[in-house]
Amino acid sequence: MDRSISVFSVGYPILTEDDERKYACRMTQEVGGEFHSVTIASKEVPELLRDVNWHLDEPRAHSIQARKINIFIPNGF
């Protein structure tokens, strides 16, 4: 390829066994890509889910997506 691949990974402040960021970083290095990692706190999740739901709003978005996200957001939208 004529340019590197960008890889994005999201994690939580508390490192756990199932945190895949270290593996994603290692694989990105193997293919010569650019690794970007973002850490989010649990208190940020409701607002981020609102943003995700907004971005999923397209003519072909499946209605179940909005219902699943709405479960995690107090007082709906």
Shape: flat
Oligomer: single chain
String of helices and strands: EHEHH
Mind describing the biggest β-sheet? 2 strands, parallel
**What's the helix count?**
3
What's the total count of β strands?
A: 2
Description:
It is flat and about 35 Å long. It has three helices and two strands; from the N terminus they run βαβαα. By secondary structure, it is of the alpha+beta class. The protein starts with 5 loop residues before the first strand and ends in a 5-residue tail after the last helix. It has a two-stranded parallel sheet. The relative contact order is 0.16. Helix 2 packs antiparallel against helix 3 (63-72).
Record the SSE blueprint.
Blueprint: E1 6-11, H1 21-30, E2 34-39, H2 45-56, H3 63-72
Parallel strand pairs: 1-2
